[in-house]
């Protein structure tokens, strides 16, 4: 049943009841496994999928979110989404800051590739374990993420487990989703997630102060680091 209080005006972006197709032209199943990076980026896809009669099973696996307090804040946001809109999700892993610090890359793209690959692979593995036909991710809602790379890595992970990766383009609803999250009082983060993105943020000092993280512990970009 659609939570009518949840859905409130964005008809210019999605037509209620219209069939949803993926890249090969086939109709989606009624249930899909869905990786969630955070509550604000999940709220619009949840709306979109439910309008089309698809119920996503959420999966919060984000070892790339640092430090631990920030990871807990984002998990808390999904718990709030569950309370408000009955969105069920599983949680796996925790914050793995030290592991991410060990990934010696000299460019931002290298770090982003690791973040995408680790999460999509684990999501595919869990989807296969639970018997789903395929999976998708809330990463596809943000215009600031590397969509081509997400699609590439999602398909590779899906192939490994004989699944399908649903490459939705949720981006037209990004701002609606942010408005929904604001209306619902969900935690809305100010940086992507990993310790490197925190260090690169223009607001790193302010964010570090908010989460009581020593500024001197941030891995400020090394000489030759390319954004």
Describe it for me?
It is built from 8 helices and 5 strands; from the N terminus they run βαβαβααβαβααα. It has 227 residues and is an alpha/beta fold. The protein has one domain: Rossmann fold. A 5-stranded parallel sheet has the order 3-2-1-4-5, with helices on both faces. Helix 5 links the parallel strand 4 (134-137) and strand 5 (164-165). Helix 1 (39-51) runs parallel beside helix 2 (68-85), helix 1 packs across helix 6 (174-184) and helix 4 (108-129) packs parallel to helix 5. Residues 1-13 and 222-227 have low confidence and may be disordered.
Number of domains: 1
Rg of Cα set:
17 Å
CATH architecture: 3-Layer(aba) Sandwich
Strand element count: 5
Protein name: Epoxyqueuosine reductase QueH
Function: Catalyzes the conversion of epoxyqueuosine (oQ) to queuosine (Q), which is a hypermodified base found in the wobble positions of tRNA(Asp), tRNA(Asn), tRNA(His) and tRNA(Tyr).
EC number: 1.17.99.6
GO molecular function: 4 iron, 4 sulfur cluster binding; epoxyqueuosine reductase activity; metal ion binding
